[in-house]
Amino acid sequence: MTTRDRQREETKKRIYDCAFQLFEKKGFDNVKVQDIAKAAGISIGGLYHHYRSKADIIDFGYFTFDEQLEEQYQTQKFKSPREGIEALIRFQMQTCVDTGVEIISITFRNQINAENHYRYSEDRYLTKQLIANLKKAGLDEAKQKQVAEALLRTARGYVYDWCCRKGSFDLVGATLEQVDIILAYYQI
Questions:
Q1: Model-level pTM?
Q2: Any residues with CB less than 8 A from the CB of 118 and at least 6 apart, and which?
Q3: Into which CATH architecture does domain 1-51 fall?
Q4: Number of C-beta neighbours around residue 176 at 10 A
């Protein structure tokens, strides 16, 4: 990575961090692109060089999540595919809890209108690892995709409910209970 590439990534990350601080403080709808640019110490044109919109800034979070997940996941050894799957879902849910209900609610609201379909892509690290674990568990290709999608839909559903209920229940524990039911059904 060149110095210029590194600077570009640092600027993009700074914009992202500043935007989310402002979203949390003022609310997504009350933050203007100008506010984000000012907080990040760049011009509005500089912000648009990195992101097309405020929604695009939110979408960047999916890429950073996948990078963090990959970094953590690769350092661990699992005794079984089930353990690997549970670790993936636990990381996803704990990241939501750590991020906070307000920011996750903004992220969910953005998903409805977003043009970026990366979050549902089979190319995401989370999805690839779920499928890899399901393959290790002996499921055929069609079942791998079916179960991975069921797990992801379940996780999204629990996160949505957690947001609607203002974080009033144990997101990690509740989601993992349901994941265990799904895995048991498929004998994983």
A1: 0.86
A2: 59, 62, 63, 124
A3: Orthogonal Bundle (1.10)
A4: 18
